[in-house]
Amino acid sequence: MNPLISIPRQALAELLQAAGSPLTPEQYVASLPETGAYKKYPSRARMAGWSKPVLMLVTILSGVFTLFFFGLENVIVFIGLAVVTFFEYRVHRYFRELNPTAPSLGFRNQSAFAAGILVYCLYHGFSTFQIPSQAQTLVEDNNLIDPAMLTSFARLFYLFIAVTAGGSQFWLAWYYRSAQGRPDS
Q1: 85 Rama class: left (phi>0) / alpha (psi -120 to 50) / beta
Q2: What confidence score (pLDDT) does residue 120 get?
Q3: How many whole angstroms from its chain centre is CA 151?
Q4: Neighbours of 172 (CB within 10 A)
Q5: Average pLDDT, stretch 147-170?
Q6: Can you say whether residue 20 is alpha, beta or left, with left for phi > 0 and alpha for psi between -120 and 50 degrees?
Q7: Half-sphere exposure of 27 (CA within 13 A, CB side)
Q8: What gap in Å lies between CA 96 and CA 173, rounded to an integer?
Q9: Which of 41, 87, 99, 141 could form a disulfide with 109 if both were Cys (CB 3.0 to 4.6 A apart)?
Q10: Residues near 133 by Cβ (< 8 Å), separated by ≥ 6?
Q11: CA distance 181 to 117
């Protein structure tokens, strides 16, 4: 239901009285969430509209990668991406329909995604990085790069992804959350 639909004061007073509410129409309206927040919903819907296909593409690529390199970690990543993508489609629909739960759902979805990215990247960034034995032999035989330097580059790569990808998803979570109205006290 559109929250901006107006109703005559007298009709609202009669409805409140019939429902047994002790509130006056003014008190009832003051108890509702801020209607100005709904003005932010179209921009949040556009942002979710951009986010949906990107997440879908990443999820599909993750599924293909999981098929070729099957492993528990890849399956967990694929399932996590599929869940985030599912809820991002719902967030987009909720913002389009002016559903008041859209900001909190979007915040939870993107915060969980940001946390997942951070955990994954920090785990790989600080875990022991092992160069495959064939690559180690190739590096040592051809004196291409110092293995310790390669380990440092891998750690920096994961930390860079944690900050940029995790940070951008957490920013998106707060952007969704900023559309949430603040009820008057």
Answers
A1: alpha
A2: 92
A3: 30
A4: 22
A5: 87
A6: left
A7: 7
A8: 17
A9: 87
A10: none
A11: 28
Taking the complete model, does pTM exceed 0.85, yes or no? no
Entry field: residues in the chain: 185
In this prediction, residue 60 has a pLDDT band, given cuts at 50, 70 and 90, of: very high
How far is Cα 141 from Cα 105, in angstroms, rounded to an integer?
54
Question: How many C-alpha atoms does 151 have within 13 Å on its Cβ side?
Answer: 11
User: Closest by alpha carbon to 40, among 172, 185, 181?
Assistant: 181
DSSP classification of residue 32:
S
Give how far Cα 140 sits from Cα of 49, 133, 145, Å.
48, 10, 8
CB 101 within 8 A of CB 93: no
Q: Chain centroid to CA 30: how far?
A: 31
Beta strand residue intervals within the chain, DSSP E: none
